[in-house]
Guanylate kinase
Amino acid sequence: MSAISRRGALFVLSSPSGAGKTTLARRLLVESPGLTLSVSATTRPKREGEVDGADYHFVTPEGFAAMAAGGALLEHAEVFGLRYGTPRAPVETWLAEGRDVLFDVDWQGARQLRGSALGADVASVFILPPSIAELDRRLRARNLDAPETVARRMAKARDEIAHCPEYDYVVVNDDLDASAATLRAILAAERARRARLTGLDAFLADLT
Ligand SMILES: Nc1nc2c(ncn2[C@@H]2O[C@H](COP(=O)(O)OP(=O)(O)O)[C@@H](O)[C@H]2O)c(=O)[nH]1
Ligand SMILES: Nc1ncnc2c1ncn2[C@@H]1O[C@H](COP(=O)(O)OP(=O)(O)O)[C@@H](O)[C@H]1O
């Protein structure tokens, strides 16, 4: 009997800064076996507590430019004047192994991934804050940025939210446990998509 297997999914999360994407992504990685995080390259300085190679690959502007020019990035974009991009090679390896890959990218990255050769396997989720006031509160509570940076992130948040209609799913991150459960459910449903299965025709032919 032929086996049914499936191609790996590109599970893309975007949100305005402070809506809880990093928190939710970390939970999903722990709670959903078989999901691997795409670690982005960035020219942003490392924050306290971040680990090079785990949170990001922290690179110089020259290093980033060389990666982009050499085709080593699957997508890349500028956010807050800093550069962010997805290294291509690990993603291609994981997908070929049938693993699902989680991407924490902005709307520009999500758009490029949807438009790429891998676009058919993209499932995208936009995480919204319950309100703009709550987003402001979370950004301040996180206490990672100077006050003027918080103001800049709030302005950028409105831009990011405007792209929410481009996504397959929208999760309002009010209660963290409920949002994490919704993300697990979306991933589980995406894994069962018929269009993602390979070997289905041969399997069905064997049945007849
Ligand atoms: N296009 C793209 N965006 C990225 C990538 N990595 C991170 N980002 C986005 O860049 C923005 C800023 O990220 P970061 O500096 O970590 O701050 P955050 O707002 O606290 O998550 C977020 O919207 C991320 O989703 C990437 O590889 N490509
Ligand atoms: N559902 C939630 N309720 C309350 N606080 C939250 C929730 N989700 C995330 N947070 C908090 O909001 C802040 C921003 O979350 P973070 O994951 O860093 O956001 P992002 O990656 O989208 O910038 C953090 O302090 C985080 O603990």
Summary: Residues 14, 17, 22, 40, 44, 75, 77, 79, 84-86, 104-106, 108-109 surround guanosine-5'-diphosphate (ligand 1) (CB under 6 Å). The longest helix spans residues 176-191. The chain has eight helices and eleven strands.
